[in-house]
Every structure is written in structure tokens, then in C-alpha cells.
Design brief:
about 140 residues, mainly alpha, 7 helices, globular
């Protein structure tokens, strides 16, 4: 299944799609508008909870993405490279978009491209997410 194979042809095809290109273009605009970014995260969180069973392989990392971007939006975490942050936000935008490479309304298939792209982003940004999670642990320990 393409979802488990992050280097799959399908993953490359998704990343090269016009839909993902539009998501990448929008990502920088979202990072400049805290309210818009927060709204995106709220929408993504709602959608993710509705798809939790199908996201079980990436659930913890996806929730870390959301927390990382929220921490960035509220200014408490800035120790991430701009390319990684843009990639994460672009993947979240793609995830919430109902019309992408395979539209979400196509039963059984509409979620494959979202899941594949998320898995690729998780793999690509693994060190950034790990650094954020370590920062998070230290924040909890300080309270």
C-alpha cells in the first residue's frame, strides 16, 4: 500500500500534482496570518478526528504537526527551518482540501493521496518533529 511506502511512485505523483503545488503556494500566506493558520489547524484537527482509524499509522506524528504549528503560530516555538515548516503547513492544507489529486468524496480512494502525502512529510520532517517533541517535554518538565 502506498501509505506505508513513503517513497512510492504514488507519493511522488502526489507531491508533483497541481493540487499540492497550490497547497505549497498557500502555505507562506497562512504563516503570515495567525488567525488563518489557527483556523486551518482547527479544520485539520476536526477532519483528522473523523478519520482517526484510517490515520492510525501516523496519528501521533500528525498530532505533533498540529501542536508544532500551533506553537509556531502563538510564538512559543520557532526552532524549525522555514522549508520544513512550509512543507508541514502545505501538507496540512492539502489534507483539509476536499478537492485534490483524488477528491475526498470518492469512497475508498479519496483519502489515499492525503495519507501518502502526510506519511512522506512525516518521514521528511522527522528530525524537526523530534526536536519539537523534545522541546515540548522540556516545557512540561519546567511547569
Amino acid at each position: 500500500m502506498a501509505f506505508k511506502n513513503n517513497g512510492s511512485v504514488f507519493s511522488r505523483f502526489t507531491r508533483q500534482s497541481k493540487s499540492y503545488g497550490r497547497s505549497r503556494s498557500k502555505a507562506a500566506h497562512y504563516l503570515k496570518d495567525r488567525d488563518k493558520l489557527t483556523g486551518l489547524l482547527d479544520e485539520a484537527t476536526l477532519k483528522a478526528h473523523g478519520k482517526k482509524g484510517r490515520l492510525k499509522d501516523v496519528w501521533a506524528s500528525l498530532m505533533s504537526f498540529f501542536r508544532l504549528v500551533r506553537a509556531y503560530a502563538n510564538g512559543t516555538y520557532r526552532q524549525i527551518s522555514l522549508p520544513s515548516l512550509l512543507m508541514i503547513v502545505a501538507s496540512i492544507i492539502y489534507f483539509v482540501s476536499p478537492i485534490d489529486l483524488i477528491p475526498d468524496f470518492i469512497i475508498g480512494l479519496g483519502f489515499i493521496d492525503d495519507a501518502t502525502l502526510l506519511a512522506w512529510t512525516i518521514k521528511t520532517c522527522a528530525s524537526d518533529v523530534a526536536a519539537f517533541m523534545e522541546w515540548e517535554r522540556k516545557q512540561v518538565g519546567q511547569k
